[in-house]
Every structure is written in structure tokens, then in C-alpha cells.
């Protein structure tokens, strides 16, 4: 995505929410924190996700989450050297500053490097019945329902392709011929698609056991086929690899207000009363990265849910990470979700 670096600038007093808006609008994956044109720090996607995991609110000032000692370059540094440094330091962008720390510009990895395909495969689960969306799903599998003029599954594949993913596997069960006829081998969409078919429902992870072991040499993205999202899938993979997890689950913050007064007590005595409190927690967003050894644990033809698969990994002391998403995300599971997707799609740039 092309952008003007000036559009990435916020002040130290700006909120984390305002920085998020900048990240999503520009697609730059970095926000520059400036005062009087002097660089105070930078905020990346990763900085915000770490602050969310630490319980930091979106209304906090961006100065509390920024990196106040970022890597910077002078304007005399050649672009080739900037590209070498970004690859060496594994950073996506480097601000350009003067000798007195005046902000002059921004180098980005996307700008300096040529685009390339990502070898890691993507597994999309598209076999569900979509019973809560009947009668829409009587003759159409849920991932093939049209949102914004094209099937949800097509929107998902094209977004993944935009981030460099070109090797796809799709699991089918209900009305598989509808999916096959639309996508074929993927050539018309500029990707490669192979299929695995569940003769009977195998749970939310069981279809992984049907994959040819030849395709299990790199960490694999696993995504539910009925999700509409603006997540940066490449950043998800980078997060997984950088943290050396066996598996990573995308999570989303969920709020629930208890409609009663909540009482805390001890030995029959009330200690506190909180009227209609709001509880916050992280919930599963239906997107994962799994290392080959995790997928190997799925026995061909055996029923297993993703939560059980990951719980087994944790019991075996294998690292399972969580990637908090702040981008748009919608699981199209109910009729009101489907209607919301129709109204949201136009403003999302998907």
C-alpha cells in the first residue's frame, strides 16, 4: 500500500486508539511520535499488541507504549544500506532524521524491497453446514455466501494473497462442488489451491490430519473460512516465528457486562459490592499458526477440535502463544453477522 509518511505522525499526547487508526488507514505498520517536528519515538503494531496483552487501555497516551529509542538513519544513508539494516535488525521501517533529530522521512521495507511470495502454506477450513444461516445455506456453503459482491472465502483468499501467501489448502464437507467449481486449482486467482475432503465432520482441527505430510515442512496458517477480517497475516506469521512458538492463536478482546451487582465475600462477610461490572477477556478468533509437529499430532480421520489440540501441546510443555488482534474481525456465523458484513465491507478496503 502506498502512503505519505506525514500521515503516520501523531503527538505524544495522542491516544493508542488514535495511533491504531493511523496504522490501519495508512497500512504503514508504524506510527511516528513527534512534537514540533522532533522525533520522540515510534509505535509499531507489535508495541500495541504487547500493551493490550499487558492490560493497557486504548485510551492511554501513545507515549506510554512507544519505543523512545528507535533505530534511525540520516538522510545521507543510501537506500541499499537502509534495506540491509532493516533485514539485519528485522524491522519494517526506519525514520530518517537530521543531526538535531528533526524528522525528514521514513524508509519502509515494503518500499525498498521487491515483493515476493511467502512459501508458508495456508489451510482454510470451509466444511461447516452454516445451520444458523439457513435458508441462505440450503444450497450454498457458508464460506461461499456473497458479501460485497463476492464470496467471503474469495475475499479471504485475496487478502492473504495480498500479503504474499499463494499456497492454499481448503477442507470441504458440505456442498464441496460449489467451492471446487468457483475456485478450481486457484490459477485464475493467482494462487495454488488443493483440497482435502472430510467424509464426516472431523471437528475444528481434524481435517489437518488429511494433509499430505509432504506439505508439512513450514509453519502453516490455519483460518476459518467464514471470517471477514483486516488482520495483517504476514505480521501474524512474523510474530509466531520471532517468538519461537509451536502454535499461535489469534485472540480478540471481549467485553461482557454482568447485569447484576457482584458480591465478593469471605467467611460469610461481604468484602465488596460492584454494581453491573464489565468483565474483559480474550476469546479465540479462529486464526492460527501451527508448526509441522503440531499438525503431525492430528491422526488421519480422527475427530479433534483445535482447542483440544492446543491444550495437548500445552500439556506437553510446548509453547502456545496468543496474538491479540485490534483490526476489524467478524465471524459470519449468524444472520445479524451476515447483515453487518454487508454494511461493513464497503468501508474496509477488502
From TrEMBL:
Name assigned to this protein: Alcohol dehydrogenase
UniProtKB keywords: CBS domain
InterPro entries: CBS_dom, CBS_dom_sf, Mannose-1P_guanyltransferase, NTP_transferase_dom, Nucleotide-diphossugar_trans
Source organism of this protein record: Aliidiomarina maris
Entries under CDD domains matching the protein: CBS_pair_NTP_transferase_assoc (cd04607), NTP_transferase_like_2 (cd06426)
The CBS domain, residue ranges: 1-60, 66-122
Taxonomic superkingdom: Bacteria
